[in-house]
Structure formats: structure tokens, C-alpha cells
């Protein structure tokens, strides 16, 4: 019995160094791969927004028994967290015909476009107060220019003629409504080069004149 115990102890003593040596020479466990950029970039904000909306903006007109409603297609792109550039194209659709409606005029009575730049200010203060911030959200200052065209009818048919252009500075506020809604309201002013008749020196004269312009709008849009 004692001989058996002695043989077992000797076997363990002989095997232990070999086991330790094997563990020492075995390759170290490779560290886990770092997370991929795709797994860390969760919720990256979009820099470009496409808008389709309507509202009390260019293309909206209400006259005697006549209503024209605008359809506005726009794009806004953030170049930094605070600055963005935007462009819009609109068409004013005749939805209620007046008493003296001219059937030779097309459905789109007015169209035009605008481009501008926006500065969203006080983003950090709004964030500290728990208010909505981020791309396309907040109060802003904007410089924008517009061009407007009107439908006209003559013996050759209906066509569009240049109306006037404006250059404005506006203050506005833009807010998200759910996931695919957007509210945008703005007010400001500038100048326009409208075509007008003026009475001077006993005569009526017509031509382009530089006049003050008031720019006010409220838009509701679907966005992507």
C-alpha cells in the first residue's frame, strides 16, 4: 500500500513541471476585437432634410371668392451644428375659382423659389434648459432671396412671366412634430423690385422700383 502511494506521489511531482511549462508556453488569449464604427455610431443625426408642406406662405392668396393654396417642396442641409443652407420651390394652386375665373389660365397660378442660409442660435442654452435642440430644431436668423412668377394668358395660350424678387432677413422658429412632422414660422423684412406704376411730374410711369417688403410665413410639412 505504501509503495502504491509513493509511486503516485512521484508521478504527480514529475508531471507538475511539464504541466506548468505547457501552460507558460501556450499562446496568450487574444483580446476581443474593438467595437466596429457601425456599432458605436448609434443614432447619428441626419444632415439633410427633405420637406413637403403647405401653409400661409408664398403662393397663398385669398381674394373675392378665390383661394390659392401653396404646395412647397424644400431641402435643408446642415453644414455645421448651427449653420444650414436651404432651398424651396413652390406652386400656388387655384382651389376655389372666383366669380370671374379665367378658364384659359392654368391650375398653377403662381410659382417661384427661394434660397437662403440659417443660423440656429443659443443651442447650448436650450439644451441646458431641457428644450428641444439638434439639427433642424430651434430659433434661427436667416438671410434669403426669392423669385416669383405669375401665370398669364394671351392669344398664344397660357405662360408664366417674371413677377419680382426679394431679399430679406427674417427671424424664425422651427420645431419637429413627431417623427415626420415639422412646424416652421418666420417674420422679417427686406426689399423687393416689383413692377409698378408711379405718378411723377404729371405723368404715370411704369417700371421696376425698389420698395420695402414684409416677409411672414407659417408652414406645416411632412419631412424625411
Automatic annotation (TrEMBL):
Signal peptide: 1-22
Keyword terms of this UniProt record: Signal
Region of interest (Disordered), residue spans: 25-46
Name under which the protein is recorded: DUF3575 domain-containing protein
